[in-house]
Amino acid sequence: MPDTVKPILSVEGLQTVFNTRKGEIHAVNHVDFDLRAGELLGVVGESGSGKSVTMMSLLKLLPMPPAEVRNGRAMFDGRDLLQLSDDKLRTVRGGEIGFVFQDPMTSLNPVFTVGFQIMEPLRTHMGLSKRDAKKRAQELLELVGIPDAARRLDDYPHQFSGGMRQRVMIAIALACDPKVLIADEPTTALDVTIQAQILELMKDLRDRLGMAVIWITHDLGVIAGIADRVMVMYGGQVVEHAPVKELFRNPQHPYTKALLKTVPSLSGERAKRLTVIEGQPPILSSAPNACSFRDRCPHAMPRCGTENPARYGIGNGHDAACFLVEPEVAHV
Ligand code: SF4
């Protein structure tokens, strides 16, 4: 996708902290990114890297307090999401921006039928009559590939398999024709075959409906075949960002290189022994004033312990936050 396509979502300087009894946790530190209409942006990192907190901060999906969005702008369709009232944000959430979570069993309400749960946003956000909402709910179940959709509207979540429940969650997220769909580790709890089916489904929906997708995952391999661009996060920061092919062909940040070694071979066979990244993720008790990867980095130098590297552009829409790629033209 050309860089000239105007972003539908533009995030600048996002900073989120958690105020805990033991002090502040700096979960998201000055994150910047753009999302363009119709593209799929993969957001990759270990647990605790800030990828989910970044997206949840945009839609106030975090408990506040203890969470606090301290700085930043998130321009979506001419409005700053971070400045919207709770009421206005509620109409964006589940309407213009859909969200699919990791575990559909905790997101779906076990006491209501699946049909009711798909119809609810159609009635509240789009004002459809009960009859029209039911018709649309059936179409949505068909769209996400659930057989015998008309009958299954009356079933409860526990009557669906894990993969089918995830499809129901996607149907709910798609109900109001969102411009952006945020999917947070939506395939992690599923077996590999079902994961592949859900990925194919998302790719197909993105192509057919033209919505932009943010796909959050800890596994670079999952998004290799579907993402347009990838943003790698570590220690609450974006450490590398590039078009997907460029990232796989020419990774620059030592963390991305380590992540790539954990990806099973592309031939489809699992590598005999997957590499694990040595060391622990950083404790984010203060704003970064050094490279957050320094304790695990094989190339760390004295400077890495006293300065936090900026994101340096290296051409082809590619940038990385590492002194090894300095000096180049600074990104953003
Ligand atoms: Fe490693 Fe230094 Fe680069 Fe950080 S800035 S990734 S510690 S070389």
Structural class call reads alpha/beta
Task: Please tally the helical runs, counting DSSP H or I stretches of 4 or more residues.
Answer: 11
Q: Please state roughly what percent of the residues sit in beta strands, choosing from under 5%, 5-15%, 15-25%, 25-35%, 35-45% or over 45%.
A: 15-25%
Provide the gyration radius in Å: 20 Å
The main sheet orders its strands as 6-7-8-3-9-10-12-11
Mean pLDDT: 85
Q: State the end-to-end CA separation.
A: 19 Å
Largest sheet: 8 strands, mixed
What is the total tally of β strands? 12
| Overall form | globular
Helix proportion range: 25-40%
The low-confidence parts are none
SSE order, one letter for each helix or strand: EEEHEEHEHHHHHEHEHEEHHEE
Bound molecules: iron/sulfur cluster
Question: Would you mind describing this structure in some detail?
Answer:
With 332 residues, the chain is an alpha/beta fold. It has helices at residues 51-58, 86-92, 104-107, 114-126, 130-143, 149-152, 162-174, 192-209, 220-223, 244-249, 254-261; strands spanning 7-20, 23-36, 40-44, 67-76, 79-80, 97-100, 180-184, 212-217, 229-234, 237-243, 312-313, 319-320. The strands form 2 sheets. Strands 6-7-8-3-9-10-12-11 form an 8-stranded mixed β-sheet, sandwiched between helices. Strands 2-1-4-5 form a 4-stranded antiparallel β-sheet. A hairpin with a 2-residue loop joins strand 1 and strand 2. Helix 4 crosses helix 5 and helix 5 (130-143) crosses helix 7 (162-174). The longest helix is centred in the middle third of the chain and has 18 residues, at 192-209. It starts with 6 loop residues before the first strand and ends in a 12-residue tail after the last strand. The model has no long low-confidence stretch (mean pLDDT 85).
